[in-house]
Structures are given as structure tokens and as C-alpha cells.
Amino acid sequence: MTTSSRPSRLTVEAPGASTLVQDLGRPGLAHLGVPASGALDRGALTLANRLVGNPDAAAALEIAMGGFRSRFAAETWFAVTGAWGDVRLDGRRIAPYTAARAAEGGVLELAPPERGIRSLLAVRGGIDVPAVLGSRSRDTLSGLGPDPVRAGDVLPIGAAPAASVPLLDHEAAFPPPSGTVTLSLLPGPRADWFTDAARRGLFDGAWRMSDQADRIGARLVGDVLARRVDGELASEATVPGSVQVAGDGRPTILLADRPVTGGYPVIAVVAAASLDRLAQVRPGQELRFRHA
């Protein structure tokens, strides 16, 4: 399928709780104090882009907890992936994880999701806002990148790519789980700062996502992880998925917009293959860990 290469735009009428422009981020700048940022659910971003024929790294909208409404200025192909919930085009329900075509003036609405928390909306041509340090991603900690999307914002859409919209009736969809989410962990650089009981408890215990969770980090509710080594730790590098443990023994998982260094010991690191799953865990949802 092909579409016009004429650039278009998307008017956001309601951004919901949080809508941000995100692509695959700006890796390789940690030595300058700049985290990679980028979409938390990278697999969902890549899939949405592929469904509309975009390059994997094209900028899209990361929409947290739905409540989103927008209007297309011209005929536009789009796809919604990530969180699973009610998606409507001009009042008609359409399936997530599919490419759909909006007519000129078409209205897209995303209700609060039934599963997961973050939806990725890709439009053919990508969201064509200015790049900062090679990326169109919003970094919520440093403020780099485009401002959070507000009601009334008009977002430019780039020219259609050379690739056609794939001839697929639908894409295999794997909605985020509604029950317990299992994540794989690798040993952290300071695992030896914790007692044997704490290291066992990390894997044997039941954890829940707290309501203190954003793109910087996600605080967990569960057992206290006791240290065997007291004292201060000099600030050292962090990576996405680092499980830092504060002085109260409560763990926080650092995410894409984290600081690039931290002063709390890291007991474990969420494996890269589990980070997309982590991005969709809702407050109150149960988590368990396994050895990677």
C-alpha cells in the first residue's frame, strides 16, 4: 500500500495524563551526563513504526494511561501498540496492533487502557519535531527534547517514507499481562553489599509496583533488603534497569530518563529483554524476579 508523500500534521485535542514525543533515544552520551531516554517500551515503538512503513527510529507519541484525542489534517496511516485498550477512529472501534487509515479530519481517541500503561502512536512519516542531540525524545529529568504535548498542540508529520505500508490484515498482538509480571535479573555491581537473605528475598519475595513510578524510576513495595556493608557509596554509573536500594532498604528500578550516575548500591539489573515488559507494569501490579 502506498500513500501520498505530502507532509501533514496532527492536532492534539486532549493529551491525557501524559503524552510525550519519543524515538529510540540518544545513546552514547552518558559521558556527557546525558541519558539515552527514548521510548520505555522500545518493542512497541519499533512495531508501531513497522506497521506504517516507517524506519524503526521514527518519532512517535508515548501516551500514558489513555484519555488521548487528536485530529488528522489529511489522510494518514497510523498504528497504536503497547498498552491494550479501546481505540476509536471517528467513533468506530479499531483493533490495536494494526495499521489503519484516517481520513482528512479524522478523530482518533484512546481510552484508559485495560492492560499496560503506555501506548505508542506512530504515524506514517513520523512526528517531525526538531531533534536535540540527534533525538526527538523528551527527557523528563533534564528537560531535553520537545516539551510535553499539550491540548491544542499541532504536531508536524514528516513526508511518507519510501517503504510501503505492509500488506497485513493484522499483526500478532501480545497484550501486556494483567496478572503477575516476571522480570529477569542479572547480578548488580554491588550485590555483595547485601546479606544473603536480601539476595534470596529479591527472588523469593512478592513485589508490587508503587504509585511512585515515572520515566526516571519505579519504586517497588515489598520486603526490606538489608545490607551487610554500611557507609556511603561514591557515585557510580547506572544503566537502564539498575535496581538501586536506598538507605531504607527499599528498591527502585531506574529507567530511561534516570541520572547517569547514582549513589545507592545496585543489587541487580533488569535484563534488557525484560525492560519493555517493565514499562507496561501498572501501579499495584505484582512483580516477581527470576535469574536471567
From TrEMBL:
SUPFAM superfamilies: Cyclophilin-like. Keywords: ATP-binding, Hydrolase, Nucleotide-binding. Pfam families: CT_A_B. The keyword ATP-binding applies. Gene3D superfamilies: Cyclophilin-like. InterPro entries: CT_A_B, Cyclophilin-like_dom_sf, PxpC. Residues 31-292 form the Carboxyltransferase domain. This is Biotin-dependent carboxyltransferase family protein.
